[in-house]
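Hi R.,

Here's the chain you asked about this morning:
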Amino acid sequence: MAIKSKKKSIKQAINTENATDHDDYISLLFGSEGIVAPFLCIAVFGLLVRLAVSLHSYSGAGNPPKFGDYEAQRHWMEITTNLPAKEWYRNSTSNDLAYWGLDYPPLTAYQSYVHGLLLRYFDPDSVALFTSRGYESYLGKLLMRWTVLSSDALIFFPAVLYFVLAYYGSRPSGRKSDVIWHIALILINPCLILIDHGHFQYNCISLGFTLAAIAAILSRKDLVASVFFSLALNHKQMSAYFAPAFFSYLLGNCLWQKNPVLEVLKLGFVVIGTFALIWWPYLHSTDGVLGVLSRLAPFERGLYEDYVANFWCTTSVIIKWKRLFTTQWLKLLSLGLTILSCLPSMIQQIMAPSSKVHEKSILLPLLPATLLASELPCLFYVLMHYALFSMFPLLCRDNLIVPYFALHALFILLYLAPCGRRLLRPHFSAVDIAPLSLTTLLYLCSIVLHIVYFTSHPPKKYPFLFEAMIMSLCFSHFVFLALYTNTKQWMLSKQLTSRDKEKKLS
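And the predicted structure, written out as tokens:
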């Protein structure tokens, strides 16, 4: 009887908590301090900023024979609208994989198909098989830009609203100005805007699904989170960087339930079901699945192709990985190092799952840092600055210098808005002089490198010297931030555990 009574009280408490959350959401949306009107205003401004950036150049503009990312996306629309799904990832006379072959998961292919139908309806020549390669008509470019803008508006923007409701729904006492400031920083993310609406990609879709998954976890809807994150993984394999955080949190949460096996089975069923639905055209044979998988991890091209601020590119200046190891060994080495780097954060989440620290456990935390801008404003600014700076050589090649500096300036103005300055004061007062001085010095170095990149030419013997310097500076900050966020996560976990013990004792 005592057990039944306890179960009943727990169920009543959960229902009461859910009802309270629902009331908080309604109040946050439509109450006297509602955010619907401010959100719509910021969203319209964000769309206008995206439109302004899309008026500039893009990756590979007028640069035959392979052009760039813009042509890759257009070519995928050409392939998906003219060939059956089973042929999308297979090399054939109709689909030369050497020319921008599909190398993203099936959800990207379906997205390309839907967008390709739009292009074929208004401008059939833009997706005509074979004859549309390098197609750059005014109408074609307008339609292509519209597909990115609509994807942003239909997926990323609603995900931001969902996150804000989940994040601030349990904080009804928070200032409305702080919420609006946070919305502006998420929606007007200069890195995302420059890559998607300048360089030309569709990261807004996979990041939108990831953001929705985070919001679902904050709302204690783990099954919904599993569906959203499965969609993110099936749109871009880049989302796998977030997988350790989601996997460890969801697994840890299941293990602490009354029926852990049943909870794990439920999550497994949802994830496998979502994957099976998306991969259905390729599940007819082993060759079909392996054909897609081989395109998703093209290690034959190497672990790095450009001066990107990651481990492999940065260390390749000193260690020539391609000469020391075969491709097979590099695959295993990459997998091992990735697991080792994620292991501490994963162990912590399995041992003490908490949505409070969930977003901090991701090693490439630009999106999570943006979501935590109100809690870690200084870390957020440093990360955003060096994330932007790491893209600088790429954006120079794409002739996107004006949008780069304009969005950088806009971001600083938003960051230093009155409510932003109020949130920054307690963080600056807690910063030691030595770390602040070092950060300032490195910040000045980045400014100097901007000037050097524009005004000087590298030695002929080292044509990519400036890119290597930018890459090394940015990577050093990313390593520091990864170590800092993991340390912060463990410390916060201990604080939460000690609080729980105090509550039990009282």
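The first helix runs from residue 2 to 30.

Let me know if you need anything else.
M.
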